[in-house]
Design the sequence.
């Protein structure tokens, strides 16, 4: 089959390579500006187009190029993380439409940052859904799902690594079955409650130390690498980015103001939180642009310190 590639991220680029190696031809590669937290720049998509002798575009004018793309005789497109909503008139120019890899269990999780929200919402699992795109966001019928069980120590980077492993094989499986036996997707269950998730900004990761330890821990896990971390500040206003931590039961009852550094354990600050007998042991944090060692020294230098 002739396959068009629309979107961003490493998983999409590697999916296209997987399909090319499986004997399919890449007809065009269409990307746009990458996000600051990506470790896969748009130049990688240009390299992909050169490897596969495909047309290459890097802008948001995809709808204006519908006639050109129609002329590529593309059978089906794969898409991940395209920046704008595509109208049905564009999706339908390809005989098998556009299939999308969506990091949410459809129809329950529709929208943006689904894996981050799943951690914050204390879900037991996350899902990668390969579905047929429609004009309504994330509402198209589903071809294939793959699940990942969430643990209390699962970080968002673990989920990104998982998606990069499974998405290429999922796209290859779906397209092989479409080509071989005309696989049709299954409509989403209209009786299920839909959670529409919206984008998150770095400032949404600001810690409120009055919250329970487990809630703060979920915020850190959902905001860690490849993102900037959960945000706090020292009493003198220095920004602290917390990337890893773990709930800690100190073995004694305590009275402390939330944000208080109560102990130093192995060079790591133990911080009081609200509404629980647990504290939070901060294991990786950075103060402004300092090194990890310098940052931990600042956080641990005095038990009179309070994080805000």
Sequence:
């Amino acid at each position: 089959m002739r396959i068009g590639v629309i979107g961003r991220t490493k998983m999409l680029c590697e999916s296209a390579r997987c399909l090319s190696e499986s004997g399919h031809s890449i007809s065009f590669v269409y990307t746009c500006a990458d996000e600051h937290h990506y470790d896969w720049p748009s130049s990688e998509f240009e390299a992909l187009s050169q490897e596969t002798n495909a047309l290459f575009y890097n802008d948001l004018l995809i709808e204006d190029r519908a006639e050109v793309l129609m002329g590529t005789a593309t059978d089906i497109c794969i898409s991940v993380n395209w920046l704008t909503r595509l109208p049905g008139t564009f999706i339908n120019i390809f005989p098998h439409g556009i299939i999308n890899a969506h990091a949410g269990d459809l129809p329950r999780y529709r929208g943006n940052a689904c894996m981050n929200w799943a951690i914050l919402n204390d879900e037991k699992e996350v899902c990668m859904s390969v579905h047929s795109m429609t004009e309504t966001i994330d509402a198209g019928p589903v071809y294939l799902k793959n699940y990942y069980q969430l643990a209390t120590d699962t970080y968002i980077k673990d989920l990104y690594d998982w998606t990069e492993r499974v998405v290429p094989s999922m796209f290859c499986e779906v397209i092989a079955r479409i080509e071989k036996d005309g696989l049709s997707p299954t409509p989403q269950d209209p009786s299920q409650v839909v959670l529409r998730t919206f984008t998150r900004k770095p400032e949404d990761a600001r810690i409120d130390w009055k919250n329970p330890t487990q809630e703060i821990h979920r915020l850190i896990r959902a905001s860690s690498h490849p993102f900037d971390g959960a945000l706090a500040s020292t009493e003198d206003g220095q920004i602290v980015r917390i990337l890893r931590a773990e709930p800690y039961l100190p073995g004694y009852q305590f009275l402390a103001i939330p944000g208080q550094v109560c102990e130093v354990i192995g060079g790591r600050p133990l911080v009081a939180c609200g509404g629980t007998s647990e504290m939070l042991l901060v294991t990786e944090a950075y103060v402004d642009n300092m090194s990890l060692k310098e940052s931990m020294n600042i956080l641990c230098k005095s038990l009179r310190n309070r994080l805000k």
Summary: The chain has two domains: 2-100+131-140+151-183, 202-300. The radius of gyration is 23 Å. Helices lie at 10-21, 43-52, 66-70, 88-91, 114-120, 156-181, 213-223, 292-300. Residues 156-181 form the longest helix (26 residues).
